[in-house]
Specification:
The protein is α+β, with helices and mostly antiparallel strands. Helices cover about 25% and strands about 20% of the residues. The chain has a single domain, classed as Glutaredoxin. Strand 7 and strand 8 form a beta hairpin. The chain starts with 11 loop residues before the first strand and ends in a 16-residue tail after the last strand.
């Protein structure tokens, strides 16, 4: 897992979907385009059943927190092995869910590797330090709900972290890793941590 207080990795990636002002970024979004407020980065994709399971709560997170922080979705799955996670699939997913936040395609998987991503979904909450540097405050699961386990889909873990960030309160360092579908790495380009337990 990425260490807490790690700075937000720099990126410049194709923009698949997103409402204004993101829709005016000439189809590419960079870390430098982000406003200086807290940021929630979500590693998602279109096909994974774990992602589909949490889509309603992601929509609720946007409704509840979207005015106070920036939400950003990234899909890093290999388009060689999973073409259904390409532009059309992601755009259809965002349209069906009514998501307005930017959704980026990390086709070379550089951002997923910089985040030490392992699965979809996975959540990273950053907040600006006094010098404006976005640093990691939370990385891990949304909540304890999984497909078929009948636990409430309420975003409890992530919501608690986001509320603390917005209130200026330190986030507990007891953070459980997310559970989901492995990121589908491009063949032969798997990171060193692929297949390791977290």
């Amino acid at each position: 897992m990425l260490p807490l207080q790690h700075p937000l990795p720099q990126f410049s990636l194709p923009l698949v979907s997103g409402d204004a002002p993101w829709s005016s970024l000439d189809d590419v979004m960079s870390s430098g385009d982000l406003p200086g407020r807290p940021l929630l980065v979500m590693l998602l994709c279109a096909h994974c059943p774990f992602v589909k399971h949490v889509e309603p709560e992601i929509s609720r997170l946007e409704a509840d927190f979207g005015d106070q922080m920036t939400l950003l979705a990234i899909s890093s799955n290999s388009l060689i092995t999973h073409p259904q996670d390409g532009r059309d699939g992601l755009r259809q997913q965002a349209d069906q869910q009514g998501w307005r936040f930017p959704y980026l395609l990390d086709e070379q998987q550089t951002l997923a590797k910089a985040l030490r991503g392992a699965c979809t979904p996975e959540f990273y909450a950053f907040a600006p330090d006094v010098d404006g540097t976005q640093t990691l405050r939370y990385r891990g699961q949304l909540d304890t709900s999984r497909p078929g386990n009948h636990q409430p889909l309420d975003g409890a873990d992530l919501r608690a972290a986001l509320k603390n960030i917005l209130a200026g309160i330190p986030v507990s360092e007891t953070q459980l890793p997310s559970v989901g579908c492995n990121i589908k790495w491009n063949p032969g380009q798997e990171p060193p941590w692929f297949g390791q337990s977290t």
